[in-house]
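fyi for ur records
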Amino acid sequence: EIGSGLVGSEMCIRDRAYTTLAIALAYGLRAKGKESRAMGWNLFITYAFGRVSEPIIYGILFRDKKALAWNMIGGAVGGLLVSLLHANVYIFTGVGFPWMNVLMFAQDIIPGTIGCLAGGAVTFALAMIFGFEGQEKMPLKSKSGDSEAVESVEA
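which gave:
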């Protein structure tokens, strides 16, 4: 059992599944260029059904400082709420789909769910309102297979 007195990575990790999912969804909706939006949807589906977050980390978060900031702010808000509501995490391993992470709170499922959803909502709202940076010159694969900076085209 991880006590509710801890405000740190243990509490923030539980709602990171929601913030990461929210970033991929917002990127799929808001990114400039058809290729960037398609990548966002692809990463969203990969994470929602396969629980593979590394493509989002390397494909969006490490390439876009704003996306990383929105993800961190949402994770902090969710972790703080979980701590303030005194929700305890009873298991620390992954549970199936990311949206099932609230089951880790066992009897504290209501405050755990509130914290997770709040973190995801804050991340999604920040990403949709303020958008992303670096979309104009992100390295994308060209038709010849070389990685180069290409201008994105607004659809």
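The first helix runs from residue 9 to 30. thats all i got for now
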